[in-house]
Amino acid sequence: MSLQRLLVEQRQRVDALIALLEEEQRALAAEQVDGERILELARAKQAVLEPLSQTETRRQAVQQHLGYGAGLDGALEAAREAGCESDWLALQERAGHAAHLNALGGQLLQIRMRGNQRILDFIRELAEKTPYSPDGQPGRRPGRVDVSA
């Protein structure tokens, strides 16, 4: 497979990943988070990431087979000499965008998790102050005298 074809294939896969990351971001920013949808998106992202990784491995192998050094400098030189520098640069731009979206998604997830933890802490605090015993019977309330004795 030609280097240009690999770069185009990678960019298509990165674009698919970006679409999923954007959808995930919308799902996480929604008023009500649909946990099932978030799981579906995670599975879909994994389904895109695996072949993307395989394509990257093939691209690196082609790059080295053609005698170029490993890393970004070798990749740029290989793409330039193969006449597909614009494909390489477009791929790099899209990959950077995907990384940015992924970081934002992680931040949104952290915000949601902190919010959920605050809610759980509040519920736990309320449960500790309840005027009922664990079996649902009225218990002793602080500040009241128990006259049942």
From TrEMBL:
Domain of life: Bacteria
Claim: Nuclease is one of the keywords in the record: no
Keywords (A to Z) from UniProt: Bacterial flagellum biogenesis, Cell projection, Cilium, Flagellum
Residue numbers spanned by region Disordered: 129-149
Keyword hit for Signal: no
Biological process according to GO: bacterial-type flagellum assembly
Role of this protein: Required for the efficient initiation of filament assembly.
Family to which the UniProt record says this protein belongs: Belongs to the FlgN family.
Name of the featured protein: Flagellar biosynthesis protein FlgN
Protein species of origin: Thauera aromatica K172
